[in-house]
Specification:
The chain is built from 16 helices and 27 strands. The strands form eight sheets. It has a five-stranded mixed beta sheet with strand order 4-3-5-6-7, sandwiched between helices. A four-stranded mixed beta sheet has the order 2-1-11-10, sandwiched between helices. Strands 18-19-21-22 form a four-stranded antiparallel beta sheet.
């Protein structure tokens, strides 16, 4: 790229890859790059005509779709600032973001409209229905919108995509350092911060990622992560658009029932995922199938035979993913070690990366050939990573990051911004880790999560949680400190327990007895694998699934103050 701005990126791709499919719906409409550019310009002109100026904020509140991508590029291509909002946010959180960011317009889907129906904001002047780019009249309520949608949206005026040159589309010059996005994070700490990313932050990160995994115009992606997260927006939208690749969106949530036929139709070559997806596939499909038969369950405990079984399972899994997958990218949180061992032995083409919303996001990664077990890969071109104040015994310390991909700060929060930057410009990630002799990064956990043991040693709850996750019947877990003791909260896979013990035939006392025995066994097996100073004192059943962030990390802060019975 000669100039790192999103408008130039789209312009270049529309010229180079005009007839390539850019965005599409699974089994539905597709847009080539020429058509994508035309639709983006039409929406851009509409925004300009409505008085949206460079620097003005425009929100997007919707599920993934082709139109989400059009809105994203339309907003940023005129120098306005996109504010993607998480669909998981409740009404009050959405209202706060719209007011705090001073949004003048919003693209909203019919499913999410109820969250903004009663918003009180002097700045918000225009509401556009993302389903078909209809203009939502003032005083429209949810019931009326529902009737209009069911009636085919005939009562709403649509933005017209006329088949003619767009007369009067005068855009201001966009600079690389102009703010392109403000992303309000919902992290594990519970504090929503507006991360400000520039055009250069995003485009540079996309280009570095493209080089890392050798993105080409022949690649096809199936999108399964939310676009309001920078992981999917940068790596799953901007990067493929940069390279002339194709992205397909599902019309349904990516459950197993919907995902399998979608992968068969699209036959993706690249997919972006969070660990939870592949962990569930391994434990609920691959491992469950192996353990069904007594003979394979026994053979799987023997290393040479396990490798052969995994190799066969890996070939089947590739076919499940459509048969053409060359890269399965995993990020957002740590991958369980037993699942990564399976991927290696199955010769499944995976790669693990590391980054944060504040870094646009990717900082380290690798291709599927140079991946190292338990590592997050090596530093991308043009970026820097160092370990601050490393422990002399093991080299561990806080991960500091510097590069063209690092944010300019938090919206309207100079104090918080100052807290996360050193005087010489290093971003303090809050993650603990170390670099090996080859420059590969290994993470230990979040600095805020570290527990200091009675002997003064650091205990990383994430490492213990990874071991717990490998135990039979475990779905997810948290390790916390209570009254000087280590406690594990565990959410069990009740469906598997039902199958293994025929629980539907048992009464409630017998069921409770089985669950207690499972938890007792987990505690014994777990502590046999832990150092004396990090042994778990108590295991507690977490009946409901834990609440999570968009990248499926448990919102630890919600459980940090809870009493353990």
């Amino acid at each position: 790229m000669e100039k790192y701005t999103l408008d130039k990126l789209l312009e270049n791709s529309a010229e180079k890859y005009a007839d390539n499919i850019a965005l599409g719906s699974v089994g539905g409409e597709t847009l080539n790059f020429k058509e994508l550019k035309f639709k983006v310009e039409t929406i851009s002109k509409f925004l300009i005509d409505k008085g949206i100026l460079p620097g003005d904020k425009v929100a997007i509140l919707s599920e993934n779709s082709v139109n989400w991508g059009i809105a994203y590029f339309a907003i940023t291509s005129i120098g306005s600032v996109g504010v993607p909002i998480m669909t998981e946010f409740n009404n009050s959180e959405v209202h706060h973001i719209l007011r705090h960011s001073e949004c003048k317009a919003i693209f909203v889907s019919s499913k999410q409209f109820g969250k903004i129906e009663e918003v009180k904001s002097e700045d918000l002047k225009h509401r556009i229905l993302l389903n078909d780019f209809s203009i939502i009249p003032e005083n429209t309520d949810t019931d009326f919108l529902k009737r209009v949608v069911e009636d085919g949206l005939k009562e709403f005026q649509k933005i017209k995509f006329a088949a003619m040159k767009l007369i009067g589309l005068v855009k201001s010059e966009i600079n690389e350092d102009d703010i392109a996005l403000i992303l309000y994070t919902s992290g594990t700490t519970g504090h929503s911060k507006g991360v400000m990313l520039t055009h250069k932050n995003i485009v540079y990160d996309a280009e570095a990622t493209a080089t890392l995994v050798n993105f080409t115009e022949h690649d096809k992606l199936l999108s399964i992560l939310p676009l309001y997260h920078t992981y999917e927006a940068t790596l799953g939208l901007v990067t493929p658009v940069l390279c002339g690749a194709s992205v397909y969106y599902m019309n349904k949530p990516p459950t197993a029932a919907a995902l399998l036929p979608a992968m068969k139709i699209v036959q993706p070559t690249i997919m972006l995922s969070v660990p939870l997806v592949i962990e569930k596939i391994y434990r609920l499909r691959v491992l469950a199938e192996i353990k069904k038969k007594t003979i394979t369950r026994g053979l799987y405990k023997l290393s040479p035979l396990r490798k052969k079984i995994n190799a066969v399972a890996g070939k089947k899994l590739l076919q499940t993913f459509g048969g053409r997958l060359r890269m399965f990218c995993i990020g957002g949180s740590g991958l369980a070690s037993d699942v990564e061992k399976f991927l290696i032995e199955a010769k499944f083409p995976y790669s693990i990366g590391y980054g944060l919303t504040e870094t646009s996001p990717l900082v380290t990664g690798s291709d599927n050939i140079r991946a190292k077990f338990k590592s997050c890969g090596y530093v991308l071109e043009g970026m820097e990573v160092k370990i601050d104040n490393p422990n002399p015994d093991n080299g561990e310390g806080e991960v500091f990051i510097k590069g063209p991909n690092v944010m300019v700060g938090y919206n309207k929060d100079p104090e918080k911004t100052a807290e996360v930057f050193t005087k010489d410009g290093w971003f303090k990630s809050g993650d603990l880790g170390y670099l090996d002799k080859d420059g590969y990064l290994y993470l230990k956990g979040r600095s805020k999560n570290v527990i200091i043991g009675a002997n003064g040693k650091n205990i990383y709850p994430e490492e213990i949680e990874a071991i717990i996750a490998e135990q039979d019947f475990v779905s997810e877990c948290l390790v916390l400190q209570r009254g000087g003791q280590l406690v594990a909260r565990i959410h069990l896979n009740y469906e598997h327990i039902d199958e293994a013990h025929s629980i539907e035939k048992l009464n409630e006392p017998e069921t409770r007895k089985i669950v207690k025995q499972i938890l007792d066994d987990i505690l014994v097996n777990l502590n046999s694998q832990l150092n004396s100073f990090s042994k778990i004192n108590k295991v507690v059943q977490q009946v409901e699934p834990f609440e999570k962030t968009p990248t499926q990390k448990i919102k630890r802060f919600l459980y940090s103050e809870e009493d353990v019975e």
